[in-house]
Amino acid sequence: MNPQKKFHLVFSMIMGAMMIFLMTLVITFINVGMHTNFFRLWMNAFGMAYLVGVPVIFFLAPVARKLTGRVLGVTPG
């Protein structure tokens, strides 16, 4: 795997973990409150969301970069 592709994969995994960690925490809390099984419910939501979210980030991040470049009239670097 070339270094640029490896960078993009690792970036997607790290960005996915950070974003999904926080979003599932908030949404789980909104949906169930501080339930006795909160941690288990949250980790279940995190696991499922991570499996979906990382591939989505991997494939859509380049599209988002291009669209952002068009909106701002710049060439992404």
**Total of domains:** 1
What is the general shape? elongated
Number of helical regions: 2
Span between termini: 21 Å
H and E string: HH
The stretches of 5 or more residues where confidence is low (pLDDT under 50) are: none
Radius of gyration: 16 Å
Oligomer: single chain
The helix-and-strand class reads mainly alpha
Average of per-residue pLDDT values: 93
Report the sheet with the most strands, covering strand number, pairing sense and barrel closure. none
Number of strands: 0
SS strand fraction: under 5%
- Helix % is over 70%
Descriptive overview:
This protein is an all-alpha fold and 77 residues long. It has one domain. The chain is 84% helix and 0% strand. The chain has two helices and no strands. The model has no long low-confidence stretch (mean pLDDT 93).
Short description:
This protein is an all-alpha fold and 77 residues long. The chain is 84% helix and 0% strand. The protein contains 2 helices and no strands.
